[in-house]
Amino acid sequence: MRHEPAQAHGADAETELTELLSSLVDAGVAHPWLAALLGLAIMGRLVRAIRILVHGRHAKDPRRLFVGADRYAVLARAGHRCEHHSWLFGRCTATERLQADHVHPHSRGGATSLANGQALCGPHNERKANRIPWTWELDRLARRREAYAPLGASTAVLRQG
Fold it and tell me: Residue 120: beta bridge partners?
């Protein structure tokens, strides 16, 4: 049994990697759709990695839903009206069947706390889905709450609650 030096084995791995990359480039030139697909996959991974760096990885809060007093407090702070606000139409007028929603989604590490809760109607809650809001969106929500929240109620919005 003959043992090769580690340096020679490393050179073989480098040659194989070079050949692999060369064949991928050739395949990308021959099939542009393959290059586009590979590019999309790489971009998706990069975006995911950047979001993890920005928002971090957090353990999920074991309490999933706003119930009882917490749910009532979220809805009362909103004046029992949907807190969604659009640039064109202003604040949503829905007051029926409101849902206590996580500003920073529970599925993405958001806590089930009053500081991370908002009142949304069904369609706006569904449209928001599990998207993490930008910091400027959180600041806007906190400023808007000052106009309608009851006296003494906290208008702060915390990303992780």
Answer: 99
Residue 161 has a pLDDT of: 47
Instruction: Say yes or no: domain 68-148 is CATH 3.30.2010.
Output: no
| Partners of 100 in beta bridges | 119
Tell me the average pLDDT across 23-47: 83
Q: What are the residue ranges spanned by the domains of the chain?
A: 6-55, 68-148
